[in-house]
Amino acid sequence: MALRKVPMRKCLGCGEMLPQKELVRVVKTKIKPENENEEETYEISLDLTGKKAGRGAYICKKKECFAMAKKARRFSRALSCEIPEEVLLKMEQEISENE
């Protein structure tokens, strides 16, 4: 029986290549405007299941990796948008709860 290939992803914090299942996905999802005149908005959230639609980036489940990625502004660069401080604080709380 053939072995399956394990998908590897790079952590934004430490830069280490790890199996996808060991990492947490950060997702940028587009929110549709209610009418045509409104500007497109995005929601940034943690995807603990790995199944949400949208642009994703991966981070270890460690506080240290999150702190390094936050300090170097790697989330903003990977997701191509500016991320508000309150969203980063919420994500940091969720990671510390799941550590």
What does this structure look like?
This protein is of the alpha+beta class and about 100 residues long. It has one domain: YlxR-like (Hypothetical Cytosolic Protein, Chain: A), CATH 3.30.1230.10. Helices cover about 30% and strands about 25% of the residues. The chain has three helices and five strands; from the N terminus they run βββββααα. The protein has helices spanning about 65-70, 75-80, 85-99; strands at about 10, 15-20, 25-30, 40-45, 55-60. The strands form two sheets. The chain has a three-stranded antiparallel beta sheet with strand order 4-3-5. Helix 1 (about 65-70) packs antiparallel against helix 3 (about 85-99). The radius of gyration is 15 Å and the shape is globular.
Question: Care to give the gist of this entry?
Answer:
With 99 residues, the chain is an alpha+beta fold. The chain has helices at 63-71, 74-79, 85-98; strands spanning 8-10, 17-19, 24-31, 41-47, 55-59.
Radius of gyration: 15 Å
Tell me the strand percentage band.
Answer: 25-35%
Count of DSSP-assigned helices: 3
**Fraction of residues in helices?**
25-40%
Q: How far is it from the N-terminal to the C-terminal residue, by CA?
A: 35 Å
CATH class: Alpha Beta
Low-confidence stretches: none
Number of domains: 1
Backbone structural class: alpha+beta
The chain-level mean pLDDT equals: 88
- Examine the coordinates and then state which fold CATH places here, giving the name of the CATH topology: Hypothetical Cytosolic Protein, Chain: A
CATH superfamily: YlxR-like
For the sheet with most strands, the description reads: 3 strands, antiparallel
The largest sheet has its strands arranged as: 4-3-5
